[in-house]
Amino acid sequence: MSKLKVGVIGCGSISRWRHLPEYAANQQVEIVAVCDIVEERAKEMAEEYNATAYTDYETMLSEADLDVVSVCTPNYLHAPMSIAALNAGKHVLCEKPMATSEEEALAMIEAAEKNGKKLMIAHNQRFVPSHVKARELIENGAIGKIYSFRTAFGHGGPEGWSIDGKDSWFFRKEEAFIGAMGDLGVHKTDLMRYLLGEEFVEVGAFVESSAKENSDVDDSAVCVLKSESGIVGTLAASWAYKKSEDNSTVIYGEKGVLRLEDHPQYGLVAQYTNGEVVNYELGRIQSNDEGGQTGTRVIEHFVNSIINDTVPPIDGESGMKSLKVVLGALESSETKKIVQLS
């Protein structure tokens, strides 16, 4: 079978550290085009990956021979660019959060269906070994009925990660739409839906902007979530964890507790009520502090879904469900009420 031809829109940090290296490492694809409004960045990545550089994504979509497009741009561009690529007959991998509203998300899903193309959202937390193992233990009933959880994703902020540093689009509401909750919180809403195997039905939240100067988006949020079966827990997302990153999750069940990415050595620690403790050395989650994450397996899963014609692990519907929890949290913070997630 001939290789899938890939084009990447956006040549900032997420494409440099994740999409481009992972496509380059995949034997089933070939990077043929890259696009960025900053010509210098597009040319630099084009040279590195032996691709054609574009500064206009519509030109790239019409001129380049592509099967697949990755959308790695500021949040407000995710939906229009994904829809344009789907309508041009390309499969699309879109960065998270998939859109800035439920209406945009639905339009993306409809475009994928109408054109018979795959749409996947790049939530990589599901593929972390400790998270995969925890899901397995939960499904097998190892910790029995789940009562509660707490999950967090926080670091010092995107200025240490984004290619534009303190001048990044992450801090501008008209481009980002949402801050830490869109950057980090949506990863955890997706992760908890995956781990628990059920949807959230209610959310209450405090969403604040207090840690960053010259920013009009949220940088610290704490949410209380309730699932279909009545599991309650907290989710924290923050750009104010200055010293070190926190990417931990703890799940409390009738037969024990699972601690994920909460130990310096073990990716997963299972503490059972009978006194047994099982430490799983699964390889640590990679942090932004280490210069990005390669090997997140997002590209691998996306490419396999195209080649095998299967539903991507995080399709548009799933991406929208994770987004809706975040949108509900924003509404709760604004209205000071618990929000029902229909």
TrEMBL record:
It comes from the Bacteria. Keywords: Oxidoreductase. Residues 4-123 form the Gfo/Idh/MocA-like oxidoreductase N-terminal domain. Residues 132-258 form the GFO/IDH/MocA-like oxidoreductase domain. The keyword Cell cycle does not apply. Gene3D superfamilies: Dihydrodipicolinate Reductase, domain 2, NAD(P)-binding Rossmann-like Domain. The keyword Oxidoreductase applies. PANTHER family: BCDNA.GH03377. This is Gfo/Idh/MocA family protein. It comes from Lederbergia graminis.
